[in-house]
Every structure is written in structure tokens, then in C-alpha cells.
Amino acid sequence: MYVIPLLYRLTSSSNHLSINRLHQALHAVIKKHNILRTALYLDANTSLIQHCLDLNHIHHSSSNVYGFTILNLSDNNQNINEIIKEILNQSDLFDLSKGKVIHCHIIRQYRSSSSFENDDLLINDDLIL
Question: Among 4, 64, 107, 115, fewest CB within 10 Å belongs to which?
Fold first, then answer.
């Protein structure tokens, strides 16, 4: 297994992105595509078994099927490249035996000059990994 990281930086100062809507969109894509909720495991005869998780299971316990975390960075945090490297090196991001093949990290840049009026919005220079 290998990780294919994709990093997106928001670059609009006038438009914002809703974290809740992003989460709902990710959930809809995972429900639509079987491969994104497929578990692989060995049975008693050491045969590889592939099992697609039930859509009803996805609806009721989405936190077990894919990861979605929000990280708020303060001004005195370490370098963003180091943070991304640490995230990508976490051993528990994916679990093929449970069908957990996607993990989304929201990395929000805290700016002391501005306060978050709405905690649901991503603003300029926030990252999606």
C-alpha cells in the first residue's frame, strides 16, 4: 500500500469553503464508489477476501470508514511542511482490513489579526490534505 497525498491551498480572499459541505461531498463520493469502501483481509485459510462495506453501515458510522480531521495551527507552530510530513507518516491513517482507504485533513491557519466569524469556513491559505 502507498499513500498518494494531494494538497490544496485555498487562494481566494473573498470566497470561503464550508467544512461541513466538504465533509458531505467526501461522504457522497465514498458512498457512490465501492472501491473507496472495500475491505481486504485474510480468512482462516489465508485466502485474501475482498468485502465491500454496506451503504447503511456507511451512513450510520462514517467516522469508522474514512478519516476527517481538522487541525488549527497557531502562529508559533512548527513549519507547515514538517506538519504535513508528520501527518503522512502516521501509521493509523489507513486500515485496509476495515475499508478505511481515505483520510482528509483540514489544516487551518490561525491569524491573530482576524477572528473566525464562522468555525465552519475555510479561508485564504487554509489547506486540504
Answer: 4
Containing 88, the helix (H) or strand (E) segment is helix 80-88
What pTM, to 2 d.p., does this model score?
0.78
* Single-letter code of the amino acid located at 79: N
Q: What is the pLDDT of residues 21-60, one digit of tens each?
A: 999 999 889 889 988 888 888 999 999 999 888 766 655 5
Contact 96, 40 (CB under 8 A): yes
Pull the grid cell for residue 26. Answer: 467526501
Collapsed DSSP state (helix, strand, coil) of residue 43: coil
62: region left, alpha or beta (phi > 0 left; psi from -120 to 50 alpha): alpha
Contacts of residue 66, Cβ cutoff 8 Å, sequence gap at least 6: 26, 27, 30, 36, 100, 101, 102, 103, 104
Q: What is the DSSP letter of 100?
A: B
Look up residue 5 and give its three cell numbers.
Answer: 497525498
CB-CB contact of 72 with 80 (8 Å): no
DSSP-derived secondary structure letter, 116? -
